[in-house]
Write a structure and sequence with these properties.
Largest sheet: 5 strands, parallel
Distance between the termini: 63 Å
Strand order of the largest sheet: 1-2-3-5-4
Shape: globular
Helix content: 40-55%
Order of helices and strands: HHEHHHEHEEHEHHHH
């Protein structure tokens, strides 16, 4: 794996501060009704995509996740300006404005969503890995899910098949503690989610997901295991979200003191302190990176504001038409 150098840490600091500001700006735009529908923010979980993309081969590996999906594609190389445009339904968005917050997608960067159905992406991640194995691409899929999704039956079916076929996939539960609003301890008889892999003899482990270096180390081992043909790994990335599940979440299930306590382990602050410990940058230099991040997020908003909405006729370009659709006569006759 690439070393954890000064360049890596400064890159992490710049990207993670930009990701945080991007999500804060999204919250502001939602309150102004420029972003509609659902909005799920990623504040506090930035160490996960930072660590995983450090360990991945971005020239061939792929990623899929659920609906808290603005930051993962940025880490994979998708232009944040296009993501901001997609969030606001603009034609310059990643799906021409017709996907929105929960459905960011980029075939070019092998980021396959953005899925609104809880756990719906888990079988799809294994399917992508099946294709990689079938065509001998030597690629690995990283399949993210939330702690709420592990209660879906599809996870168990997928784990069984993935182990049977030794698919090159790394399953990652981003355990932020509360799913939509119910704590892990109230939804199962155990709190160690990673142990679900034991029933399938799948290598599994927990990781401190507030530290990108620890995330990268666990990710690299799992990715290399998958790449050499030894099958999947299940990682429980223990993290915490600072915002509610979505913008409609009043967060009655936790206290402000709890959130403040977790912010003492802020992943951005962990990166910052490690930079200081190694004398890799001064406070003034990090301030300059933060200002650069702030300015770039404003550029994303400006790009979105100047972009047009998609033409209404575009809706018809994504509707399949089959003249001889099976059973249509039977429906008409009844």
């Amino acid at each position: 794996m690439k070393e954890f150098s000064k360049e890596v840490y400064l890159k992490w600091y710049e990207e993670m501060t930009m990701w945080r500001r991007f999500e804060d700006k999204c919250r502001s735009l939602y309150l102004k009704q420029k972003i509609r529908g659902f909005l799920h923010l990623y504040n506090g979980q930035e160490a996960i995509p930072a660590g995983f993309t450090h360990a991945m081969d971005l020239s061939k590996d792929s990623m899929i996740t659920a609906y808290r999906c603005h930051i993962h594609p940025m880490a994979m190389g998708v232009d944040p300006k296009r993501i901001m445009a997609e969030l606001c339904g603009k034609a310059t968005g990643t799906s021409q404005g017709m996907g929105g917050s929960m459905h960011i997608f980029s075939k070019e960067h092998r980021f396959y969503g953005g899925h609104g159905i809880v756990g719906g992406q888990i079988p799809l991640g294994a399917g992508i890995a099946f294709g990689d194995k079938y065509f001998d691409r030597k690629a690995v899929n990283i399949c993210f899910m939330g702690d709420g999704a592990v209660r879906q039956g599809a996870l168990h079916e997928t784990f069984n098949m993935a182990m049977n076929w030794k698919l090159p996939v790394v399953f990652v539960c981003e355990n932020n503690g509360y799913a939509m609003g119910t704590s892990v301890k109230r939804t199962a008889n155990h709190e160690d989610i990673y142990k679900l892999g034991l029933g399938y003899e799948m290598p599994c482990l927990p990781v401190d997901a507030m530290d990108p270096e620890k995330v990268a180390e666990a990710a690299y081992e799992a990715i290399e295991r998958a790449r050499r043909g030894d099958g999947p790994t299940f990682i429980e990335a223990r993290t915490y979200r600072y915002r509610g599940h979505s913008m409609s979440d009043a967060e009655p299930y936790r206290s402000k003191d709890e959130v403040a306590q977790y912010k003492l382990e802020d992943p951005i602050e962990i990166v910052k302190q490690r930079i200081f410990d190694n004398n890799w940058a001064t406070q003034e230099e990090l301030d300059a990176l933060e200002e650069k991040s702030r300015a770039f997020v404003e550029e994303c908003v400006e790009f979105m504001e100047e972009s047009p909405y998609p033409d209404a006729n575009l809706l018809y370009d994504y509707v399949y038409s089959t003249p001889d659709y099976p059973f249509i006569n039977k429906l008409e006759n009844n």
